[in-house]
Amino acid sequence: MTLEDVLGPAGALARGLPGYEHRHDQLELARAVERALGERRYLVAEAGTGTGKTLAYLVPAALSGRKVIISTATKTLQEQIWQRDLPLLAERAGLEVEAAYLKGRANYYCLERGAKFAERPTFESRGEAALWPRIQEWARATLTGDRSEIDLPDQYGAWRELSASGETCLGKECQRHDECFVTLARARAAQADVVLVNHHLFFADLVLRTSRAGVEVLPPYDAVIFDEAHALSEVATDYFGLSVSSYRVDDLARDAVRAVADRPDLMRLVKDRTGELEKAGERFFAGVAARMGSSPSSKMRGRAPSYSPLAPGQPPPAAPALAPWRGARGAGPAARGDLKVALSDDLLGPLEPDQARLDGALEDVREVFADAEATALAAIGRRAAELRVELRAVTTLAEPSRVHFAEARGRGVFLRAVPVDVAEELVERLYRRVDTAVFTSATLAAGGRLDYFRREVGLAPEFDVDEAIFPGPFDYARQAALVVPDGLPEPASPAFTAAAAAAVRELVAVTGGRAFVLSTSMRGMNALREALADLPYQLLLQGERPKAKLLDAFREEPSVLFATQSFWEGVDVPGEALSLVVIDKLPFAPPTDPVLAARGQALAAEGRDAFSELSVPAAALALKQGFGRLIRTRRDRGLVAVLDRRLTTKGYGRAFLATLPPAPLLRSVEAARRWWAGA
């Protein structure tokens, strides 16, 4: 069987799939992937929406005879491949792919932890408790232990006690190891020719392989295909760094008490030590949260993004003052949106006594379990020791190759240290080990070139890399128009929100609702929603319901959905239900981002223009992702409106326009109305 036998004009899919349209770019991309796999090469390929890129790499991967890892960024794409694309190849093309779907440990039910939890079940609410009988019934019947089989709320707290957490796993010493769902999933992956994972699991494995001899999560593989490769740099940055959080301290204290539930001789001592650990952790992380809000440059948050290289050692702008933090599990910084602030001596210095107390509490917990013979107890001691070492590492600011910062996310506070240049890490950890890799996405090329992406992931010019850009089958000149209304205030102007709301009101009247209104901040989203509360359509707001339920409601009747950048990718609403995408501002990364600031400094130190080489291409690709929500099929048509005048008044706006699909540019709502009437 060949590529043409499956994907060609007279191939199996063309013959066996009603309504199938042969796509020239799909076959060409498949040939490029086949070459990379066959000749052990690297390939970077942008494939526009509608190209059919998943089949374009699945078919050559299946025919290659090599062990291939396919890694994606989003759950949506993973499930599409597993539930739709692989069965399609088997049923319509006769191409049976020996495949396995491997997820992170937290997705699997742990038989051992589940049995112990059942002895003393505790829940955060009556609603959680009501689901417990259904979980028990499912656990007795499931063959995979995969949480996705059972419809649990995203924030179901008891799952933390039931999942196959790596920190609590006993490994081969567990009495249930042979029937463990993680063990069985890995066994299936070891036998498969194609293994489907996500970027997080791939890099978790890569870090283990390259830092702990003999420890690995994925089976040995010959080649890797990264879909949604635009997300690689961010995920790699996370995994090549260190992170200490209030959650980890809380979890260690809780697990320590549970580990001695059947040891009355230790229970009192452990409760004393973990009680002190919880108090020390809460005091320290509350102090970090309070210091984050008192940074001298906190007034920068909320302004329109700008960029200016920072002097070496100067912290990037931070965020506004936060209300006193109420602890790791309580209301806190998340209520005001995620926040990052560079760590500095000024921030950490006043907290030295609190950090010393936390350090001592961790050592006290470690000592309790230091001589334990039982595996479960010894694991608690190791975790305490590791947490202590990592806390010291993330708060030691002497390493210039790393960015140290504090982050308020969800209900927790995180201290992190990540590489300034993840490219070097990728070269050492991945490219020197794997001779075949494919990187593909609908958004890799900025201004028609792949240089920015290659630089971000360490594929320097000296690497012999195949490149390809496939625009996709859509006729953007006919199907879409880009609207940038003249006369709007600068995004930093106090008058911007009112003017933007007025423009949105006029635009949604053109399309009869059926619109996404995407903001670059939670504040902007809420302000527009409040200003447009009287629109005569169903109004939906990110966060009011789970994402899937919001999209279901959006599809059911003419609606206006207000959201932030979480809806800029991984969202697919084909047809008339989505006819308008409004983007309030150019999506520059916040100037408060410590990683962006450090990378900007590194480029500036080399005499390069960090704004044009880093900030602009990153924002242009993000805008391209937002644009990509609109046209999903050849029959779709609609408008993308950007309410940021800088797109047409600033010189760098040309770089954005050169990155977007070639749709006609309209400069007024009236022009958009005429285009819509004649489209």
Helix share bin: 40-55%
Strand order of the largest sheet: 3-4-2-5-10-1-11
Sheet having the most strands: 7 strands, parallel
Could you list the spans in which at least 5 consecutive residues all have pLDDT below 50? 295-337
Q: Kindly state the number of beta strands.
A: 18
| CATH class membership of the largest domain | Alpha Beta
Q: Identify the CATH homologous superfamily of the largest domain.
A: P-loop containing nucleotide triphosphate hydrolases
Overall number of domains:
4
Mean pLDDT: 89
Distance between the termini: 43 Å
In terms of quaternary structure, the protein is single chain
Question: How would you describe this protein?
Answer:
The protein is of the alpha/beta class and 679 residues long. It has four domains: 3-98 and 192-222 and 436-470, P-loop containing nucleotide triphosphate hydrolases (Rossmann fold, 3-Layer(aba) Sandwich); 105-182, no CATH class; 241-419, no CATH class; 476-678, Rossmann fold (3-Layer(aba) Sandwich). Helix content is 46%, strand content 13%. Strands 3-4-2-5-10-1-11 form a seven-stranded parallel β-sheet, sandwiched between helices. It has a seven-stranded parallel β-sheet with strand order 14-15-13-16-17-12-18, sandwiched between helices. Strands 6-9-8-7 form a four-stranded antiparallel β-sheet, with helices on both faces. Helix 10 packs across helix 11 (232-239), helix 12 (246-259) runs antiparallel to helix 13 and helix 13 (264-293) packs antiparallel against helix 15. The radius of gyration is 26 Å and the shape is globular.
